[in-house]
Design goal:
Blueprint: E1 5-6, H1 9-22, E2 29-34, E3 41-47, E4 51-57, E5 78-83, H2 101-115, E6 120-125, H3 127-138, E7 143-149, H4 158-173, H5 176-179, H6 194-202, E8 206-207, H7 218-222, E9 228-235, H8 241-251, E10 256-263, H9 271-282
Parallel strand pairs: 4-5, 4-6, 6-7, 7-9, 9-10
Antiparallel strand pairs: 1-8, 2-3, 3-5
């Protein structure tokens, strides 16, 4: 495995132009660069208040921008750190291979250390949820708690996830008159979201070479010791919510698991749900 990078300078410039055009963060913010042994990591700091600092971890290929429609409310009483995940298209620049679970955890641990707080509430969507749970499993030192929205890692076969993503990319590439037939609240609705579609298509010139995620083993789930809330999409696209709920109840009984009657995607983190589940997780103690 080598290093993720843009195919050439033109691809990088084109992607960053799209990224900058889409940026519409709803709060005053500061651009941070956290140096890590895996490369400089881009973090957007915003918000204020006495709540635990929230680290926002996005889904695959969507960057920190995916949060911008949803964080104005939660940022009134929390400092927010929205991260561009290492090894994906975005503002972070990978310089060292990320080959397994531990590399992902080591990278994020260095980011958390560099941000300067003792403890954080990790909030992740999809792959970001996997990153948050993986951190709680492998490097929980600075993890106060985790709220994971439909995290990866619960499908029985990685092929299920790959098929979902490949089909979604095909949806993104369809002519506009066909895309209009895709229901926003349907299984592939997330792939016709204008912001996500723009980012993913602009990122086709990016060569991703990282360990993305894998199925959580039984012993891994048993090891979770921080307060954890897992919010599953009831209309599952990549896993069976009932099976995931039963498995977590058996292996991580202290984790709270709730199911929302939506599909995998942005409907899980609309402001009322984001506020509800972050607040519920904050009320828990280890």
């Amino acid at each position: 495995m080598t290093i993720s990078r843009f195919a050439n300078d033109k691809a990088r410039q084109r992607y960053h132009a799209v990224y900058d055009e889409l940026l519409d963060w709803p709060l005053p913010h500061e651009d941070l660069t956290v140096e890590t042994s895996f490369g400089p990591t881009y973090v957007r700091r915003s918000g204020s208040g006495a709540g635990e600092p929230l680290v926002l971890l996005h889904g695959l290929a969507t960057t920190s921008l995916v949060w911008q429609r949803f964080v104005a409310d939660i940022g009134r009483d929390h400092v927010l750190y929205a991260v561009d995940s290492m090894g994906e298209a975005g503002r972070s620049v990978q310089t060292r291979p990320i080959t397994d679970h531990q590399d992902n955890a080591d990278w994020l641990a260095e980011v958390l250390a560099g941000l300067g707080h003792d403890r954080y509430h990790l909030v992740g969507l999809s792959r970001g949820g996997w990153l948050a749970l993986n951190q709680a499993i492998r490097s929980p030192g600075r993890v106060a708690r985790v709220t994971a929205f439909d995290p990866g890692g619960f499908m029985e076969s990685m092929n299920t996830g790959r098929l979902y993503l490949f089909t979604g990319l095909a949806v993104m590439l369809m002519p506009a008159f066909l895309r209009r037939r895709v229901k926003p609240d349907g299984k592939y609705g997330v792939f016709v979201d204008p912001l996500l579609r723009s980012l993913v298509l602009a990122g086709l010139g990016f060569q991703m070479k990282i360990f993305v995620l894998s199925h959580f083993g039984d012993d891994e789930l048993r090891s979770i010791s921080v307060p954890t809330r897992v919010v599953l999409a009831g209309k599952g696209s990549v896993h069976d919510a009932a099976e995931a709920t039963a498995r977590l109840a058996r292996l991580a009984p202290d984790a709270e698991v709730v199911t929302v009657d939506v599909v995998h995607g942005l409907g899980l983190v609309v402001p009322p749900l984001l506020r509800e589940h972050v607040t519920a997780c904050e009320s828990r103690t280890a």
